[in-house]
Each structure stands twice: as C-alpha cells, then as structure tokens.
Amino acid sequence: MTAGRYHLTLFSGDRPMMHGWWRREATARDMLPVWVGKWGTLSDARVTLVDEETGETLTTWPDEA
Fold first, then answer.
1. Residue 17: pLDDT above 60?
2. Is residue 16 part of a domain?
C-alpha cells in the first residue's frame, strides 16, 4: 500500500513533529482541525497540507498573510 497524495505535516518551529498521508483531499482537510485541536498549543506550532503530486501547499495553519 502506498502513501496518499495529500500530506499533512505538524511542525514545531522548523522541526517536523508528525506526518500523515491521505488519498483523498477531503479526508486530509478534515484531519487538519483535529491536529490543530490536539497539538496546536505546541511551541511555534504550524500545520501544512501539501499535494505531493503537484507540490502545491493547499493550506497552512495558522494562516499565513
């Protein structure tokens, strides 16, 4: 079984702390608030969702201006 196309990463500062891969974008997007709710209080927490096929960052929490 291969990893999914949609890659969610939790960072604390520049250090990746956790990774998850999903085949469906909707599932990965549904996981983002779960991760933020559980680990959003980490020092300098940031969560990104990337489409591994295109390399595009689909969303980042907290929002980057």
1. yes
2. yes
* Greatest Cα-to-Cα distance within the chain, rounded to the nearest angstrom: 37
Q: Is 37 left (phi over 0), alpha (psi -120 to 50) or beta?
A: alpha
Count of CB atoms situated within 10 Å of the CB of 5: 16
CA distance 32 to 48: 8
pTM of the model: 0.89
Alpha carbon distance 54, 39 (integer Å): 27
Structure token pair of residue 18: 């956790």
As given in the structure block, the two tokens for residue 13 are 């500062």
Tally of structural domains, the chain: 1
Distance CA 64, CA 45 (A): 13
Please answer whether residues 37 and 62 qualify as being in contact, where contact means their C-beta atoms are separated by less than 8 angstroms: no
